[in-house]
Structure formats: C-alpha cells, structure tokens
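The instructor's notes for this session suggest beginning with a concrete chain rather than abstract definitions. Hand out the sequence below and ask the class to guess, before any prediction is shown, which regions might be ordered.
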Amino acid sequence: MPKRTTLTFTSEDAPATGEERLFVYYCKYTGKHAFTIDSDIEKLPRRRTDGARIIDTEEHTVKLYTTDGGVKLIKRHNGNIERQYRLNVGTLPVAYRCEKEGQFIYVLSDSVTTYVNQAVIMGTKVLVPPCIRPHKASGGTEVRLEIEDRVHRPALVKITADHVRIHITSNVAVPEAVQTEVLQMMAKALGARLTQLQLHRGTRGRQKFLVIEHLQPQEVFEKLQAAVGRITTQTEQETALLGRGDSGAAMPGFGR
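After discussion, reveal the predicted structure:
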C-alpha cells in the first residue's frame, strides 16, 4: 500500500525556530525525491497562467533535490515569451523559476506527490507521466500531444512529462487533414476504435488534446510506450540495413 510521508526533525536544513512538520514530495513519474518543504503545497496559491503551485522561498523553507533542467521558452496566451529555468528530477521537469535565482519556485501541476509508490522504487511499475491523465467527463483518458508536421513518415516519437510527441505528414495549417491522420495513428497505437477518440485544440497550433474513452491512463501509457518502442526498433533495423548496404551489394532503391 502506498503511504503518505511526513517527517519531523531538527537539523541544519530545518528552520532555526526548532521542530517543524515537513512534507516530502516525490516525482509522480519516477518516484524519486524531488523536494522537502515546511508546507502542504496543496494549500499554496496557484499561478493563473498554468496552474503551477507557487512557493515563496522567503515565506517557506524548501530543500530541493532537483538538477538543472536548462532553459525553456514558453509562449503565453497574451503572446509574451516566458523564460523558465527548469528544475528536473532525472530528465523530467517538476518545477521552474522565471529568474535563475528567483524568489518564487513554480511546481508544475500533477508533477509531484507525497505518496511513495514502492512498486516504482523497486522498478516493477512506472507511474503515468502528467501529460497522460484521467478525463472526468468521458471516464477515460486525456493525452497532451505535441505535433511536428510535414515529416516524411508519421511516427510516435517519445513520451515526456510535458507531452507525447508525434510526427505527421500533414500540414498543421489544414486542420481536417491533421485530425484524420492523428486519429488514425493513435487508434492503431492504442488498439482502439475511431469512435472512442476525440481530438481537441490546444493553446498552440502544434498542441492537441486527445481524449480516449474506455481506456484508463495506465493502460494508455503502456500501449503508447509499446508503440514508441516498435518505432525505435524499426528505425534501428533500417539503419543497420542501410549500413550493410553501404559495405556490400547495393540495396534496392539505393545507388552505390
């Protein structure tokens, strides 16, 4: 059974006033320690732009166990470009600052949990990334997609905490073609019927939200992982074939 973890201790990392109740947060995806703080973040205010929880480091004591995740530029609804200094657990972002040594830390929505999943720590199960989440209205799952268009071959490329990246041959400027291609690709990957899938617009042209009825997030994640794995294996095999073709007889369709 997963358990909620709170700690009470006095050390050089704790506030000078003495004992405090500390809340330990873990990456929701990997189960690794992300940070410890003197407050339940569910009680902290949310940022209006993206729903991130706001930690004011002048009001709260927080110890980070994150690494530098680099800088990411985000275009907001008003057209402004925001620079985010990402805080990662492994390769996954769980929080960010808008200034490199800024006062405020913004914890990404659905990125951390106070529950320790022992199965994750033991390596027997991987938690579903935040980009794949329950969809209450349908009782199924919602997947945040990031689309790269006008690519030679359609493919499911990778799954990150932020999105599932896909390649399509269509132009995002032609919504009907994009919808048809994306739904067919995802139906095949998920083993689902087209009638189970709905595609909705995101905040940007290359972002979409896919709703899948009758499939739960864990099942969707496992099926998408398998699909990405098949694409990776196929690409490696094709690369190996091309390599052998260069050293021996010419491959069909490729001149020497």
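Then share the key points. The chain has a mean pLDDT of 81. The longest strand covers residues 67-75.
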